[in-house]
From TrEMBL:
InterPro entries: Acyl-CoA_DH_CS (IPR006089), Acyl-CoA_Oxase/DH_mid-dom (IPR006091), Acyl-CoA_Oxase/DH_mid-dom_sf (IPR046373), AcylCo_DH-like_C (IPR036250), AcylCo_DH/oxidase_C (IPR009075), AcylCoA_DH/ox_N (IPR013786), AcylCoA_DH/ox_N_sf (IPR037069), AcylCoA_DH/oxidase_NM_dom_sf (IPR009100). This is Acyl-CoA dehydrogenase. Pfam families: Acyl-CoA_dh_1 (PF00441), Acyl-CoA_dh_M (PF02770), Acyl-CoA_dh_N (PF02771). It comes from the Bacteria. It comes from Actinomadura montaniterrae.
Length: 383
């Protein structure tokens, strides 16, 4: 079906991203996976390309573009090439919306220019070793002491945590109340060079191996009061405001991954021969790829509708939950079937389908597990 989501500007941007990937990422991507992250100066290259500042207002040095479509293009082109931009997604899709909505004018002037250039990479630290998705149960504390907060605690599963220069740390600044376990949480934008701040293990993951994920610990870290994001105690409400965009971002990358898997498999079966015939000539191959292409088309249609709704300010948390649940399940089925069409070579990491398979597993976990999303959807339809 003809796609109407993108215009000429988006397609020109797509060509720029595609050329950049071919020149700067694809030739060295295996080295990134072995290291567990891109080299630090790669983020400055992304800054020079302008991708960090697309949605930043012009007065802070950005392009002032409010549409999510440019981020969708990047997701599609990375999937098409079987690569990722490391901590880019967290930096732009997770952290930036918090800075744009809740940072003070002084904070925006201080943080957004280095954010755009890549001189200040960011991450967000919510999850703790003993709490998982139960943010209200977190134990990390930030006690006010004059002009500073004294931060103590630990976080885990922090994407981008190894190379980050600033981390949005969610901490308890006052006790929860019996009426509201979520009260008393605040967000501090912590300088990673602060005394008492340390990066623990770089966690070895099944997939997404070019994206660093770390454990963090804080021992009497002094955080200036002026680095509090928004109001003290309002942290939990802040965390929920960006969930729709975050989940749509995951849905978009999941759809793109499935689409890329179909293309990798299509090319492979046309080249590979079995019993003197190309794999593509067998009816089973044709039927499997037809099934996959159909699922991808459905996922694309849903993603495109949700992107238009997000740009119009109409995407609800339930809409985003539907998109993430559906697209991540499609991704799992399609990538698995396309790997099967590769036979034994699908299990070899030098083939991009193998990386897609490993990377796909986490999408049904992070950003809200599929089980959590079903609960949200069920509530929305009043079940």
């Amino acid at each position: 079906m003809r796609r109407t989501l993108f215009n000429e500007d988006h397609e020109a941007f797509r060509e720029t991203i595609r050329d950049f990937i071919q020149a700067e990422v694809a030739p060295v991507y295996e080295e990134w996976e072995q290291a567990g992250h891109p080299p630090r100066d790669f983020y400055n290259k992304l800054g020079e390309l302008g991708v960090f500042g697309i949605q930043v207002p012009e007065e802070y040095g950005g392009a002032g573009e409010t549409s999510f479509k440019y981020q969708a293009v990047i997701s599609e082109e990375c999937a098409r090439a079987g690569v990722s931009f490391g901590g880019y997604g967290v930096h732009v899709n997770l952290v930036l919306p918090y800075l744009l909505k809740y940072a003070s004018e002084e904070q925006k002037k201080r943080w957004l220019p280095p954010f755009i250039s890549g001189d200040m990479m960011t991450a967000i630290a919510m999850t703790e070793p003993g709490t998982g998705s139960d943010l209200a149960g977190m134990q990390t504390t930030a006690r006010r002491d004059g002009d500073h907060y004294i931060l103590n605690g630990a976080k885990t599963f922090i994407t981008g945590g190894v190379l980050a220069d600033r981390v949005l740390v969610v901490a308890r600044t006052s006790p929860a109340t019996p009426e509201n376990r979520r009260a008393g949480l605040s967000i501090l934008v912590v300088d990673t060079k602060s005394e008492g701040y340390s990066v623990g293990r770089k966690l070895e993951k099944i997939g997404l191996r070019s994206s660093d994920t770390a454990e963090l610990s804080f021992v009497d870290v002094k955080v200036p009061v002026e680095d509090l994001l928004g109001e003290e105690g309002a942290g939990f409400s802040y965390l929920t405001h960006n969930l729709a965009e975050e989940r749509l971002g995951i849905a978009t990358s999941s759809y793109a991954s499935a689409a890329a898997a179909v293309e990798f498999a299509r090319k492979y079966v046309q080249e590979r021969t079995v019993f003197g015939k190309t794999v593509s000539s067998f009816q089973n191959t044709k039927f499997v790829l037809a099934e996959c292409a159909t699922e991808v088309e459905a996922a694309r249609s849903l993603v495109d509708r949700c992107i238009e709704a997000l740009d119009a300010g109409e995407l609800t948390p339930a809409d985003a939950a539907v998109a993430k649940l559906f697209c991540t399940e499609v991704q799992q089925r399609v990538v698995d079937k396309c790997l099967q069409l590769h036979g034994g070579y699908g299990y070899i990491l030098e083939y991009p389908i193998a990386r897609l398979y490993a990377d796909a597993r986490v999408t049904r976990i992070y950003g809200g597990t599929s089980e959590v999303l079903k609960t949200i959807i069920a509530k929305d339809i009043q079940v």
